[in-house]
Amino acid sequence: MLKVVVCVSGGGTNLQAILDAIGSGRVTNTEITAVISNNTGAKALDRARGHGIRGIPMSPKAYDSRDAFNRAFTEEMCRLAPDLIVLAGFLVKIPEEMVKRFSNRIINIHPALIPSFCGVGYYGLKVHEKVLERGVKITGATVHFVNEGMDEGPIISQKAVNVEEGDTPESLQRRVMEQAEWILLPAAIDDIANGRIRVADGKVCRISD
Ligand code: GRF
User: What is the pLDDT of residues 51-87, one digit of tens each?
Assistant: First the structure.
């Protein structure tokens, strides 16, 4: 059984997609043991608690410094000792110490086709604003392992989504979530839970059944 801790910051629609996929059997061999949020009022925490899953608020504002928060966050994660950490709309940089201790065991969903529209300043709605500003016709989402960089870890999966005439950042974000994020993230967790992928030479490869 893959023990998973999910980190969230907002509405938790990606968390909900994972919960629904576990409930419907599309994701197997997986248990979410806790949900952590830097945003103490995040609706995602309510979604977790509604499923009987421990919701842990951990706001950087409650600590004297970012270093103190990073230490506490890493210590809490080590206490929880998950097999996999899933960043689902999580807007806080992962402490280097945590990346080291959970090497190739942290995954993130990014709402664009990495290496496009990613890196510092590219998160949430801002990604879709830049996509529309640039006028690209295809965008999408990416699931990747987290390394010490920002959105630079080995790519697990991607899914393309059309940009439609008249799209607003909000309508495009919704389509990317519905058609890509909510499909890719549960599928990646199921692959990892059932030993279907591994990382070799910085690239993700599928292990045939
Ligand atoms: C989504 O666009 C996600 O890709 C981004 O944050 C937004 C909200 O995610 N990282 P959620 O609804 O909190 O899962």
Answer: 999 999 999 999 999 999 999 999 999 999 999 999 9
What integer pLDDT is reported at residue 209 of this predicted model? 62
Q: Rounded mean pLDDT of 152-156?
A: 97
pLDDT at residue 5 above 80?
yes
Ligand 1 pocket member 124 (CB < 6 A): yes
CA distance 88 to 84: 12
Dump the DSSP string for 140-164.
Answer: EEEEEE--SSSS-SPEEEEEEEEPP
pLDDT of the residue at 208: 76
d(CA 207, CA 54): 33
Do you find a cis peptide bond into 115, omega within 30 degrees of 0? yes
Q: Is 11 in the pocket of ligand 1 (CB under 6 A)?
A: yes
Going by alpha carbons, the residue nearest to atom 8 of ligand 1 is: 89
CATH number of the domain to which 169 belongs = 3.40.50.170
At a CB cut-off of 8 Å and minimum separation 6, what does 93 contact? 150
Handedness of CA 57, 31, 103, 15 (dihedral sign): negative
Domain limits at 118?
2-206
- What are the tens digits of pLDDT across the range 88-120? 999 999 999 999 999 999 999 999 999 999 999
Q: What's the gap in Å between 183 CA and the centre of ligand 1?
A: 13
Q: How many domains does the chain have?
A: 1
Average pLDDT over residues 15-24: 98
Active site residue 128: no
